[in-house]
Amino acid sequence: MSKGHISSEKELALNNVITAIIESNVSEHGEIIIYKYKNDLLATLLKKRSVVKNGVNIKIFDDKDVLIQLNLMIQKGYNMIKKIERLQKTIQEEIQLLTGLTVRQINVTLLDVFTK
């Protein structure tokens, strides 16, 4: 293992911890849902797979920095920007506290707005 790279076991463990932090924080916001890949009817009819496969994508750099991509859906009627900014801040703080990693960025793609 060369300097600056982490072992695959450690990376997997960090990914699992970070994913759990993200899922926990998202579940506390009932109006926000992590997008899960599904083979929807339109994609089937067009004989294409959906472009988005995962709701959470994590990239760890040199065992010290992390970049996160979240693909989310939010309930209609909520202040989306404030809710997502608050979610990003909370996730960033918890990841830094629990893993010691610095969160470079949390990119959010809002894929859908739903009604309950």
TrEMBL record:
It comes from the Bacteria. Belongs to the asp23 family. This is Asp23/Gls24 family envelope stress response protein. It comes from Robertmurraya mangrovi. The lineage of its organism: Bacteria, Bacillati, Bacillota, Bacilli, Bacillales.
